[in-house]
Amino acid sequence: MPITKSQLHKVMHERKSVRKYDASFKIPQEQLEELLVEATSAPSSSNLQPWRFLVIQDDAVKKELRTIANNQEQVETASAIIAVLGDTKMYENAEAVYTKNFELGYINETTKDFMINNSYKLYAQLPQETLTNIVTFDAGLISMQIMLLAKEMGYDTVPMGGFSKEAFAKHFDLADHIVPVILIAIGKAAAPAYNSSRIELNNIAKFI
Q1: pTM assigned to the model
Q2: Residue 5 scores a pLDDT above 90
Q3: Whose CA is closest to 15, among 139, 182, 195?
Q4: pLDDT digits over 83-107, tens only?
Q5: Which positions ≥6 away from 173 have C-beta within 8 Å?
Q6: Count of other CB atoms within 10 angstroms of residue 9
Q7: Is the pLDDT of residue 4 over 80?
Q8: Which GO terms describe its molecular function (predicted)?
Q9: Where would I find the H helices in the chain?
Q10: What is the average per-residue pLDDT within 32-42?
Q11: Structural domains present in the chain
Q12: How far is the CA of 128 from the CAs of 99, 125, 131, 163, in angstroms?
């Protein structure tokens, strides 16, 4: 049967990376909070939800951030910058995560205890590089949800990996276990984004 084009399909194809924003437009904080709550439905490794967010709305702070982010204009003109961070000590939240799942009736007590113990046993002994890779992967999953949800709410976004992560961590005094992953500018477009082509499927996929 042919695939019916849904609202999700529409949002996916209307979402473009916008770099020109109306600097006078401000998204209410309540809407930013709602956006992040909805985005946390994203999957994550062992459901440990390692994403953390620093939402920068203050104009002076955005101006400071612009120097860290390769002088990208949208850092200063977007309504907000959502910095998506990863917590490499996410396994320390295992007890809270799985206890809540148990209380909500999603898992039984045996599964709860197993998952708590297994999370500590597995993740606590991993090298920092491996933990960073895990939280970076999970941050990517939630970042895409943030951008799609933002578009559905009528806002535009652009993801930015072009910034000094070391300078960001130092400037915002991040703990050693909090890893900057991506910056997402969000706001009201002042100019349309460029369209972009995609590589043909037969050049990127093989079915066996």
Answers
A1: 0.94
A2: no
A3: 195
A4: 999 999 999 999 999 999 999 999 9
A5: none
A6: 11
A7: no
A8: oxidoreductase activity
A9: 7-14, 29-39, 59-68, 73-77, 94-103, 109-123, 128-152, 165-171
A10: 98
A11: 17-192 (3.40.109.10)
A12: 26, 9, 5, 21
